[in-house]
Amino acid sequence: MPHGWRPLFCFGACPPILIIAFCLRLPETKAYRDRQAVRAAQGNIAGTFITEGKVAFCRHWLLLCCMVLLMAGFNFMSHGSQDLYPTLLKSQDLFSPNAVTVTQVVVNLGAMTGGTTIGYCSQIFGRRFSVIVICIIGGTLLYPSTFTSSKAVIAATFFEQFCVQGAWGVIPIHLMELSPGSFRTFVVGTSYQLGNLASSASSTTEAQLGENYPLPPLEKDGKTIKRFEYGR
Question: How much is the average pLDDT of 21-50?
């Protein structure tokens, strides 16, 4: 690439600017304004926040711990199936950069479709039932999405990420419904971030485990490139 990382940096920096400009034009939600009015009527907003936090934690601490564990599992599922996948395609299946790009585009189309579809279906069949069923289906697709070495893997990975992000499509509303009313945004954000922290080493762990299953090295431009069977 003649310009290196600069085009990617510039392209990635533009959408946040547009989002910030868009958010500046939007008012706060009615629920937020009503809650702030209640806290202002009680006097010290910071003191009210701390008091409510103590009550929420004492009453719902077990639920909060379960939410963190739930988010840890979901982040392991998503990062474990996505972060190392382009490396798997290049190293294990010998996909070209263009083939990897096409596969990733199709994977993300599956993710968007799954999140929208299963999120809506959870309104009909229930949150937990939708998550359980789609996770089971996704588990059955792990083998074809990691051990299909032909271009047919695109179909398997489409439906794999349909299932993974389909389960994620239920999570925002499910967490909001589980959270204590006065601390809804704090609990949702904190449980997600703590779960994400717990799963942060998933791709590193997968890479180290994959190195236990070496494949015949690839010779390219006089250099030896190591290969590993990350699918295992």
Answer: 75
